[in-house]
Specification:
Chain lengths: 272, 186
């Protein structure tokens, strides 16, 4: 009897530990919805959510409008508040569903665009609340909500195009081993633009030569918005540097500039 | 006669051979398309956590991972801190920037203590900027500017919790549902 009791206690402990180790993992595809449509027409697609965790999750959907400040801060607004809100024209189903571990849920959506528009947008959130078993008595339970941007743009709207107002360079980092580019731009088009570019860095004397991709995270500049875009490159050597920047400002045009960065000023080490 | 037959057979073989070497070849083309939809995934390695027993005197009840900070003064209770209660991991394809925020509200708390007795922190990761501990219902930003990719480019970080127990808090069980949003910068 004593052996059976010990085994039961051991099994109970194992179950408790396993429940405590439960993982909450969700994967959404696509990570961004962008539809180029004819005004007055519909676009439809599917978003998939996969429960890669250990517990069933209750998934519920919601939408919020958003805007972006000059500094790149995202401001969320209640749905339908912003003039560019896509929410009056967007339908998705189901709005709630339970997804078992290892299972995938399909959310079908349709955008019925109005006759006149240039860009409609919003954030679509997928909230996942785990359903722990009764044996998992915890005080704090975690739920995750993953938000993806949704855009619908008019085919006939003007493509995004950047006006470059200012370019600033500075060295950053403890040893000034990084280069920071701050570009002030305005998207004078009617659609999003995610500027590509290349930066060539050459050290005086030619011992160092490197090419960097500008905007590797595909930061977007919304139509009609002024933005201060900041990118960091490096590490780069402390010698004086010659830079050649090429930033795509539209489908056909690029901004080009040549710059010289002085030698890094590194503070002398204090004597012991 | 035999010679004539041999000649016919030989002529037939030659014709057959010539026909075999006169095959035409046709170029085959296979059109292939692929729609890369990208993806966005986030995980927490722990779905839940418990502080166990707590009190306003800051008694250490021995709950794993919980540190009692003792009383804060004569009559304003004690603080319990649990660092790294969970590890978050996010990945995106293509590379993107993620921000995290709290999204809990009053309906996500039950019990005798004020809901904002619980505070949540995401320590900074990489280039991300942490805002420190934020009250449970504040809907505050937790961290911004985390650059993440896929595979080796995925980012991970910790979730820290802090619980303040006041002298005036009635005893009893409490639960919180901590909602954390992970938003892909547009």
């Amino acid at each position: 009897m004593r052996v059976i009791v010990r085994l039961f206690v051991l099994l109970a402990l194992l179950v408790y530990v396993e429940a405590a180790q439960a993982q909450l993992t969700t994967a959404i595809a696509p990570g961004r919805i962008e539809k180029l449509v004819k005004a007055g027409s519909k676009a439809a697609d599917v978003v998939t959510l996969t429960n890669e965790g250990d517990l069933p999750i209750q998934v519920s959907l919601s939408m919020v409008d958003f805007d972006v400040t000059e500094a790149g801060e995202v401001l969320e607004l209640p749905p339908g508040m912003h003039p560019s809100s896509i929410t009056p024209y967007f339908r998705i189903s189901p709005l709630e569903t339970m997804v078992a571990p290892g299972e995938r849920a399909l959310f079908r959506f349709e955008v019925a665009t109005p006759e006149e528009f240039t860009q409609l947008r919003a954030f679509l959130y997928f909230e996942s609340v785990p359903q722990p078993p009764d044996s998992m008595q915890k005080q704090v339970v975690f739920a995750t909500a993953m938000g993806i941007p949704v855009y619908a743009e008019n085919r006939k709207a003007e493509r995004g195009a950047l006006e470059v107002h200012d370019i600033q360079w500075q060295r950053t980092g403890e040893s000034q081993e990084y280069l920071q580019l701050q570009a002030t731009v305005t998207n004078v088009g009617e659609r999003n633009i995610r500027p590509d570019g290349l930066l060539s860095v050459l050290a005086e004397g030619g011992a160092y030569s490197e090419m960097f991709t500008v905007n590797p995270t595909a930061d977007v500049v919304l139509p009609g918005h002024r933005r201060v875009l900041t990118w960091q490159f490096g590490p780069v050597p402390p010698e004086a540097l010659a830079l050649e920047l090429r930033l795509e400002t539209s489908m056909r045009e690029s901004y080009k500039g040549n710059y010289r960065i002085p030698k890094a000023e590194v503070a002398p080490a204090s004597g012991s | 006669m035999r010679s004539f037959l041999c000649l016919v057979i030989l002529a037939g073989l030659l014709t057959c051979t010539r026909s075999a070497s006169a095959q035409r070849s046709a170029d085959l083309a296979l059109g292939v398309t692929a729609n890369n939809r990208g993806g966005f995934a986030c995980s927490l390695d722990q779905a839940a956590f418990t502080f166990g027993n707590v009190d306003a005197a800051g008694t250490d009840f021995g709950t794993a991972g919980v540190v009692a900070d003792g009383r804060n003064g004569a009559d304003d209770g004690a603080t319990y801190t649990a660092a790294s209660v969970a590890t978050w991991t996010c990945s995106t394809a293509p590379v993107g920037v993620i921000s995290f925020a709290l999204a809990s509200s009053g309906g996500d708390h039950t019990g005798t203590m004020p809901m904002d007795a619980l505070a949540v922190q995401l320590p900074a990761v990489g280039l991300g900027a942490s805002t420190g501990y934020q009250p449970f219902s504040s809907a505050a930003s937790l961290m911004t500017g985390v650059v993440i990719g896929n595979g080796a480019g995925a980012a991970s970080g910790d979730v820290d919790l802090r619980l303040a127990v006041l002298d005036g808090d009635p005893p009893g069980a409490n639960t919180w549902l901590v909602r954390i949003t992970a938003t892909a910068i547009p």
